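Demo today. Your pick:
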Amino acid sequence: MTKTIGFIPLKDRVLIKRVDQEEKSPGGIIIPDTAKEKPVEGEVLAVGQGTRDDHGVVHALDVKVGDRVLFAKWGGNEVKIRGEEYTILKESDILGILK
């Protein structure tokens, strides 16, 4: 299950593209790149098949391609695929799905 990246995560891992935060604060102040925090919101681009239990049954992940999620600020591994930056997380690092 992947969009067009050519990468399929294994087991319970998820490939995420971070969503950039606003350039301005709520008060209208422009935030320079050096002062911005890492985004903790992203779009799921690919998911693994899931985990296998003791009986060999595969349990699918709760997230799916296209979901917008919140995840732990310093969770996962940052990677570059074809020049684009992505984050690979375990599903347990995802805090929730935005509706």
Q: What stands out?
A: The domain at 13-98 is CATH 2.30.33.40 (10 Kd Chaperonin, Protein Cpn10; Chain O). The chain has one domain: 13-98. The chain has a mean pLDDT of 83. The chain is about 0% helix and 40% strand.
